[in-house]
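Take a look at the protein record below and tell me what you see:
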Amino acid sequence: MKKQIRLNAFDMNAASHQSPGLWRHPRDRSTNYARLDYWTDLARTLERGKFDGIFLADVMGIYDVYGGTPDVALRGGVQVPVNDPSLIVPAMAMVTEHLGFGVTCTLSYEPPYPFARRMSTLDHLTNGRIGWNIVTGYLDSAAKGSGLSKQASHDLRYAVADEYMDVVYKLWEASWDDDAVVVDRARGVYTDPSKVRRIHHRGENYQVDAVHLTEPSPQRTPVLYQAGASPKGMSFAAKHAECIFINGPSSVVLSKTVRKIREQIAAQGREQSSILIFAGMTVIVGRDDKEAEERLNDYRKYIDRDGALALMSGWTGIDFSSYDKNDRVQHIRNDAIHSAVDRFTIADPDRVWTIGEVAEFVGIGGAGPLIVGSPQRVADELEKWMEDTGVDGFNLMYTVMPECMTDFVDLVVPELQQRGAYKADYTPGTLREKLLGGGARTSLPHPSAVFRANAVELAGAK
């Protein structure tokens, strides 16, 4: 049986995500991002196209590495202004039945206790369709906005994140028994106190002595997404993630990353099928190749190249304003996203990138590849990328909204379905059940399931 492609729409609660400048296009409606009907209309379109989910990116802080100021980001709307992604989820859940929601939340600047409640609440309100994209942050501006002088080092952030996961796992999985809530009106008992445990955590970074505030939700632990592609990031993802998001400009870069991730998964003793790998991809489709190429040429007129370099500067921690557009991109290691500079340097040593080429490339869809053509050509290319890289599906970047998603649903989805490369309908159940085919909750050897199995010993019986 042919392997079916998984699809997420990759979006952000902002006017400009990863195609800086295209908000100026006369057909673009992304500047309506602060209106609920913008999101509910999009959710209906994605569910009509049987998308697995909408993956909502987020960033804490502002892109102020480029030129040492936030001016380019502000002027170009480069991921600023940006609203909280979690708050639009209930509205989209209300108008859909199956669409999943992957929400990016930065753990470095929020204590685990209130965060665990927020995720449990969203899991209830979506009837088990919530996922969490675990990020540690990469901008010093976020740290300064949170009262710190600068962000912690790259590897230290992942060490802190590992402990953070222990805390939220305990809260989600070990604090309440499945049958703790009895709602016994005759006896006047809502919750059986003997089936609720106080979590005691004393670690290097966190101390928690509390009962989780939310009753058990359909999934308990949300579906866990992660996008780390550095060695530390891959190790963290292989331990915790159920869906891994990777990015790269070529199949060479992506296939290397997939191979390394699979090796890390095996080292953690986890089954390959328990983790899905999604690659970033931008698609511009037309009724035929000519129309698609015309659209690409039209879109290119609106690229904000300084905005693209502001994004790259933020991702890599390198101020590209001090370089000439013909300079080669150099491999520099710092405390930003290690994989962001790697993918344009050491990941593919046979490909040399200049600053100007990176600006042009990132200007349409960010750091992922671009497919342009008819529905048949797009379907051919998607299947080839699957075969060449070993990914399980794609996070589709947007260009001009909502036409890029509507066109994909109307033109590409039927072609993929006809080939048997894409589902004809959703399977029932929670997001975890739809994606991975197992139960609503994590299973061993996932660390959250370990905490659940040892709830009394780890949390301390009340």
User: Anything to note?
Assistant: The CA atoms of residues 143 and 151 lie 5 Å apart. The chain has a mean pLDDT of 92. Residues 6-303+364-459 form a domain with the TIM Barrel fold (CATH 3.20.20.30).
